[in-house]
Amino acid sequence: MENNLKASEQRAIQYWFADGLVELSGGVIGLLLAIYFCIQQILQASKGAFALIFLSVFAAAFGIRKLMLWYREHSTYGRTGFVEPKKGWEDRRLLAAEVGFTLLLIGVMLYTIIRGIQTVVWMPAIAGSVLAFIFALAGYRTKLVRIYFLAVFCLVLGVFLALSGLGDLWGSAILSLGTSLVLFAFGIVTRTAYMRQTKVTAEQPDER
Amino acid sequence: MNAEPQSRPSLTGVDRLIHEPSRSVILAVLSAVKSADFLYLQRETGLTKGNLTVHLSKLEAAGFITIEKTYRGKLPLTLCSLTKQGKQAFEEYRQQLMEFVNSGNGNQ
């Protein structure tokens, strides 16, 4: 019985990832970031232009999230119901990990600035580590193997790209593209399975 | 000479309201998330609408959950969430269950 309860809890926690929409929208955002880094590398535009492009990508990412939530309302909630997950900061261990990692990142950046170490070439590794950390936290919460795989993938790819000497922008572009492709692959597989296994059973308003 | 039998945990003291498979599943789901709607709980428990409504009403009457009728976009939702009292009661129940299982009674 205890195992049944744990399984029910776990399914509820994993529900946010059950329909594949998170991965698919993450894939789109990754693709946009890859395009942004490519534009930055190819055009060698001014800092102001970069900031504008980056803001556009940020706004697009926000829009994609909104779109995903809207689509989810229409496709997922009518099929398998609505679950509002707990916020990340409600789990003290996760909160401690988030604060610890942020402090570590700030510490490393300050150290490199003070010591005058060139960090640009390590940008893909740093970005890969940040992505890996985010996915690792999500994996820890959901216990989904594919999310852990993404964490390892981002870390390994980021370090590999930093060591390859491609440069910060090409490196970051390839990291974003690689991550988005894996996200798309996971998203498509998850979405296909979800749509096959579920059907629309919209809640009737008079069930109580 | 017989030794004094040790007091072993039993299930007699568990909350009967929670110790019903469907209701314990409902509380397990709600303990893991902020809220869940009627349809999700129905799928998770495998109950009919009528049965689920009865179980939810009992849990609500005991003060373990709150039920809120709302809309998300145009979709009507019946959102259920665990109260502090419900969380505490469910944690105690889980603790009792674990003690019972660990004592070896669960294998008898």
Helix proportion of chain B: 40-55%
The percentage of residues in β strands of chain B lies in 15-25%
Given the C-alpha coordinates, what overall shape of chain A results?
globular
Strand order of the largest sheet of chain B: 1-3-2
Query: N-to-C terminal Cα separation of chain B, in Å?
Result: 25 Å
> What name does CATH use for the topology of chain B?
Arc Repressor Mutant, subunit A
Helix/strand structural class of chain A: mainly alpha
Order of helices and strands of chain A: HHHHEHHHH
Query: Rg of chain B to the nearest angstrom?
Result: 17 Å
Q: Specify the number of helices of chain A.
A: 8
Uncertain segments of chain B of ≥5 residues (pLDDT<50)?
Answer: none
Which spans of chain A have pLDDT < 50 for at least 5 consecutive residues?
none
Portion in helices of chain A: over 70%
Biggest interface and residues each: A-B, 32 and 37 residues
pLDDT average of chain B, as an integer?
A: 86
Overall strand count of chain A = 1
What would CATH call the homologous superfamily of chain B? Winged helix-like DNA-binding domain superfamily/Winged helix DNA-binding domain
End-to-end CA span of chain A: 28 Å
- Helices of chain B, by number, come to 4
Instruction: Tell me the major beta sheet of chain A.
Output: none
Describe this structure in words.
The complex is a heterodimer of chains A (208) and B (108). Chain A is mainly α and 208 residues long. Helix content of chain A is 78%, strand content 1%. Chain A has eight helices and one strand, in the order ααααβαααα. Chain A is globular and about 60 Å long. With 108 residues, chain B is an alpha+beta fold. Chain B has a three-stranded antiparallel β-sheet. In chain B, a hairpin with a 2-residue loop joins strand 2 and strand 3. The interface between A and B is medium-sized, with 32 and 37 residues. Strand 1 of chain A pairs antiparallel with strand 1 of chain B, so a sheet runs across the interface.
